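Researcher: Following up on the earlier apo prediction. This time include the ligand. It's pyridoxal-5'-phosphate, with the SMILES given after the sequence.
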Amino acid sequence: MDKRVYNFSAGPSMLPLEALERAGAEITNYGGSGMSVMEMSHRSKAFQQIFDDTQAKFRRLMNVPEGYKVLFLQGGASSQFSMVPLNLIGKTGKADYAVTGNFSNIAYKEAQKYGQISLAASSADANHTYIPAQDQLKLDPQASYFYYCANNTIYGTEWPYIPDTGDVPLVCDMSSDILSRQVDVSRYGIIFAGAQKNMAPAGLTVVIIRENLAGQELPYTPLMMNYKTMIDKDSMYNTPPCWCIYMLGLVLDWLDGQGGIPGMEKIKHAKAQMLYDTIDASRLFTCAAQPGSRSDMNVTFRSVSEELDAKFVQESIAAGFTNLKGHRSVGGMRASIYNAMPTEGVEALCDFIRKFDKEN
Ligand SMILES: *Cc1c(COP(=O)(O)O)cnc(C)c1O
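Model: Understood. Below is the ligand-bound prediction.
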């Protein structure tokens, strides 16, 4: 293959070409330093500059208010499933979880090791095809925090609202929709996201934490899983994921050029709408997610039979698309259309769907 494909992978996924090309140009000699960012001491002046610039760009683009710290950690989003309860549950020993898909279910189960966890809402009754409404949430005012996952990568649903939990801090897994829509950070206690969907290569986990939530960790909290350790050392208690932080900086520069997050929000919504309209207008295909809960990032759909699904996936590869097969636990198809998927890629997929619909 001599050209880039339209890669609909759920993650790791496409990165903006502009960011990849800049990284390529600088790969052996960054900014006249005579070395690659991969080879730099994380304590060097050159790397500290990259780190500080990336922090500043992230804070500006996400509108992170005073009193919040942005951490660049490792361990993936999944490490936060343990880190959140270890650090926060000590307050009352209780927490509320909304289970709307695979990853929130893993987080819910993991948290049970550390305290009394209530199922505040679940969409398991309808195979996670919808997001529970505010009045369906069973809220405990004594909960140390309320946990939910903003975008369900596997099922293709996305919360259309921010839950109102009164004084109970909100903790949100935004791994698969961070930087795609405007977020009022002040509504949250903690926002976290693995980088490999919308930000950077795998290996970096971004945590936005209201600083006064740290410092109440359970006594046996591992050093590396203590937010306080990382806040006090500005994410550099040990070696941070240097290369990924650098790549995030390049992706943020690109995002800036798209009109920042407000600009990206319009672009990504138009892309998703185009795809949903095409699926809704077809004879063969239906969407898994219910209207009102549909994700703008992961579009899940299926045809009338498994045989036809397989044929669709097969022919899509020949047509220059990749990774359209649905997650093994749901079947069907899934098109992940994160920020870096160009509009032309979605247009091409829509053309392909229409053609397949006519021919079969
Ligand atoms: C991909 C994903 C995860 C898991 O991320 P890792 O970095 O692999 O641990 C967790 N939550 C959501 C919403 C995801 O999309």
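Model: The domain at 259-359 is CATH 3.90.1150.10 (Aspartate Aminotransferase, domain 1).
Researcher: Noted. I'll compare it with the apo version next.
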